[in-house]
Each structure stands twice: as C-alpha cells, then as structure tokens.
Amino acid sequence: MKRIHGFAFLLPLALAASAADNTIDRNVNQELANAGVTAAPKTTDFEFIRRVTLDLTGRIPTTERVIAFTSDSDAGKRARLIDELLASPEFADKWTMFFGDLLRNTARTDQVTRFEEGRNVFYAYIRKSIAANKPYDVMARELIAADGGNSWEQGELNWLVGGFVTGGPQQDIWDQQAVNTFETFLGVSHLNCLLCHNGAGHLDSLSLWGKNMRRTDAWGVASFFSRTAMTRERLPDQNNRYYWTVNDNAARFRNDYTLNTTTGNRPARCAGGAVPAAGERCAATAVVAPKYLNGEGPQPGETYRAALARKITGDFQFARAAVNYVWAAFFNSGIVEPVNQFDLARLDPDNPPPAPWTLQPTNARLLNALAQDFIVSGYDLRGLMREITTSDTYQLSSRYEGEWNPAWEPLFARHRPRRLWGEEIHDAIAQASNVIPSYNVRQFGPVRWAMQLPEPRGLPDGGGRVTQFLDSFLRGNREDQPRRDDGSVLQALSLMNHTFVVNRTRTANNGGPDGKEPNYVARSLAGRDDGALVDSFYLTVLSRPPAEAEKAAALEVLRKGPRQQAAENLLWVLFNKVDFIYNY
C-alpha cells in the first residue's frame, strides 16, 4: 500500500485468479504457447480503470472513482466495475455512437437525404436498442425487414434508406441494399465487386470465396430486395423536404430481379452475361429469383426481406462478423482485418484452404468459439463485452518485459494502445476541467457531451471551431471517410492552441453544469498545498498519480510561480501529454 497526500492506493493489486478455461484466454494462451511467446504482465489498477471506462463509456473515470477503485482490496472489484459501467447511461452513449458509425446514420450524404428528423429517430432507435440490450439479431432483423410509412417516425426504416442510389434503374438500389446488408451484418464487402462481374479474373488474389462466385450469385442476393419500394413523400410548403416510405410492394414490382438494364451505375445486366453494343438493349429479358448463398430462397408466404433477415441472422458468419467488430473496438485490431473483408472460404481451422492460401483469422478457433458463445448468449452485446473485458487477455499491460517482436501483434500478447476518438478527447477535456459546454444542435436539442451527438458530420456547431477541433481527430463522416486513429501535426496544434483547450485551463472561466461554479483549476488552488495539487491534477486528467520525476518537475514550476498561472500551465501540459489522448 502507498499513501499519497491522504489517498491510499494498492500499487498494483493482484488480480483474482481468473479462469484460464474461458473461451478467450484458453484460445489466446494456446496460440501463445504454440508460438513460444510469453504474454505481458497484468495491467495495473490505474491503467485498468482508465482503459475499461474509456472503452465501455467513452469517458475518463472521475477522480473519486479512481481513488475508490484503486483503494479497494477485493478480488472481484474489476468484474464489479465492468458491470457498473455496462449499466451506465454513458455506455449507451458510447455504443450508440459506435453503431451509428456501423449503420452510417447521417442527415445527408451525396446520395441520401434523411433530413435531421430521420437521422434523429434513427439515433433514438439505436440508443433505445442499446440501452435495453436488445439482442443483436433482433436489431438486424428489424433493420433489414423494416416496413412502414414514415421514416421520420419509425427509426429503423432509415437503415434501408441508406441504400438509395441515384442515376440508374431500380436494380442499382437493390444492389446497394444487398451490398450494405452483406458488409454491415456479415463483414463481406466483396459482394460489391460481384454485382459488377464474376469473381474469377477479378478477385483471384483477394478472396478465395470471391474468386469462385459468379455475378448471378450476387444477383440472387440482391433479388431479396426486388419487391421493396422506397418512396419520397414530399411535404407541402417546406422547401422540398420529404420523408421516406419503405414497403414490400409486389404490385409495383411484379417480377423478381430482372436482367434487362444497360444504363446506371453498374455494367449491363443481360441474360447469360451478354454485353450489348453501346445504345443497344439486352437481347432478351430474364429474371433472377431471390437466392441466398446456400441456394435457398423464401419460404412459402414469407416476404423477401423477412426471408433475407432470417437467413442473415441465422448464418454463423453473422455472429463471427459481430464479435469481430466488437473485438476490434476493444483491441484496436480485429481477429480478421479489415473487419469488413471476410473471406468465407478461409475461416475454418478444421478445413483449411489449399496452398498458397492460409487461414484468414489470426486466431480462427478463438473467432469461431467467441461467435458460438455469442449465439448461445442470445446475441447479448453486453454479455459479449463482459466476456471480453473480464478476460486476462484484455487485462494485459501494454508494456512488455523484454524485447517486443512486432510479428507477435496478431497473438494479442500485450494490449495495443489506441488513440482516443475525437469525441472522447472533447469529453475528457470538458470533464477534467469542469467547464462543460452546451450546444444547441439544430432539430436535435441541447447536447453537453460530444459522445451524445447524433452524428459526426458538421456537429456540434455547424462546422464551426468545435467541429473543426473534433474533425482534426479523424472521426469520419459515415459516408466516404471512416473513423481513423492516425496522429497528425494538426492534432498536436489543436491540443496546444485551440480555444476549446486553452480556455478550459484558465481560472477565470466558470465551470459546472450550470456554468456558475469555479472550474477545476480554480477549485483546486483553494486549500491544497503544492504536492496535493499535483497529485489531484494527475488523478483527474490521467487517472493515475504522478511518477517521481513528473511530480518533481511540476513542483518546481509551482514554486517558481505565480501559483495560479503555474497551475493553469500544469493543466495545459497534462492535456498535451501523449498518455492523455491514448488509451493504454
């Protein structure tokens, strides 16, 4: 036990003996043993509480929670903390943002306009589903088979609206909806290629599954959308605004997926793969019935999209893709990378692909076992995250004793740090400084925390300075720019000079939720000696006490004074430390 200015800490507290027979540790440890690699030591309590709080809620832990957790000697405290975080409103905020990214919820893109009303009800649908821990397969079925008359009132309609494509025949829209379904729920993006041409000669070096698929196979998947009608219902006297209806309409589309197009966003769709001369039509018309990858179509009386939703969520690949997405969020790397480019012919360790192909997952048995656990749990997202965060593998240190070999990264022998999302950095600065902003997001309402924004594009201040600060951390736009964790000079300059950061280090600015309290620096200066002040700053901003050298340097700055300015500078320095914007 170590006591720092009245705070008692256990540095570090040994973990309770965790069951090495759990799915994750059993499979990871086996791969480590096969490779002769020793895992990193367990992370400290200070590192763990910051890591898991950021990963589960997108927020840094409060000083009080850090002190209580690190002072607790109970062996089950990590599991209790995880359950506490999983039950928090902040958990729903973080994972609504995550699934908003996955489902690409925006008010406007180049192809699709949902307007703020559609985006908002889609956000509400996602958040309500996450908060209620709705089974993931239920969510997927609701989204794929959604049917209704107003996308501004029925949130789940807005996912299919995201497949709208302009400039071509109806088949272009059905193709895009099929692409979105496969990529989002199965992690298979190569269907997009197959809807333009056969895999042979195009996907030979990219996908063993893809190279053996034909364009007709992809048309069979797209045909599940061939009875779906999406209509824009325009509102009178409202600047050409509209909402969407999404219905299965057999009367409007009497045939299945028809091969009779020579215009639009994809190559000509003609029977037998014929390519007509420019300006000519297909020689004959043919129809492709809905057919899943296993050759099965809808059951008698079953609507096409309901059938597809059943086939997608009943496919083992649905569970594999889901756990891989979530795993990547916690480990900064999927078991399959990129997470949306699964090769369905290279996933079975008991039936490996022929040379020179290799298994695609870095740990195929782990991926399949974790997917099976997810199915058995009833597609419980919280249960999956609990399984991950309580594992020894997740709780390994990011430090490694001895020389680290980069080739060991796929073994998960140590924890891989990640740079915080822009929203997480924003909220950490606001929380630590106790200067909480308030944004009035048009058509959405007041928002204090960036993690509660309904989308990243243009928010929270319509492209203003705070938007630019957030965008410097590459939060993406849910269309053509994915969220990334690269570093940049612009990020460093933003942390050093942006008014969002600098103003929050000044004692003159009020804090608290109502803007009428002293901010963190002003409150800390009263009644604390220099040593206690330094300890408090480190615990509040970095969730740990200072190292001896750090504390000595900070005390020297405070002694030189003036004390108020020195304290403001210290907070600015901590916001600019590398370990502030990284989760270790």
Summarize the SSE layout with pairings.
Layout: E1 2-4, E2 7-9, H1 23-35, H2 45-57, H3 63-71, H4 77-86, H5 89-103, H6 115-131, H7 136-144, H8 157-161, H9 170-186, H10 191-194, H11 208-211, H12 215-222, E3 228-234, E4 242-248, E5 257-261, E6 269-270, E7 286-288, H13 304-314, H14 316-331, H15 364-376, H16 381-389, E8 418-419, H17 422-433, E9 439-441, E10 445-447, H18 465-471, H19 489-497, H20 499-502, E11 510-511, E12 517-518, H21 520-525, H22 530-542, H23 548-560, H24 563-575, H25 578-581, E13 582-583
Antiparallel strand pairs: 1-2, 3-4, 5-6, 5-7, 8-13, 9-10, 11-12
Helix pairs in contact: 1-15, 2-4, 4-16, 5-6, 7-13, 9-12, 14-15, 14-16, 22-23, 22-24, 23-24
Keywords:
584 residues; mainly alpha; 3 domains; 3-stranded antiparallel beta sheet; two-stranded antiparallel sheet; 13 strands; globular; disordered N terminus
Short structural summary:
With 584 residues, the chain is mainly alpha-helical. It has 25 helices and 13 strands.
Percentage of β-strand residues:
5-15%
Major sheet strand order: 6-5-7
Described by the principal axes of the CA atoms, the overall outline is globular
Report the C-alpha radius of gyration, rounded.
26 Å
**Separate helix tally:** 25
Q: Count structural domains.
A: 3
Biggest sheet statistics: 3 strands, antiparallel
- What separation lies between the terminal Cα atoms? 23 Å
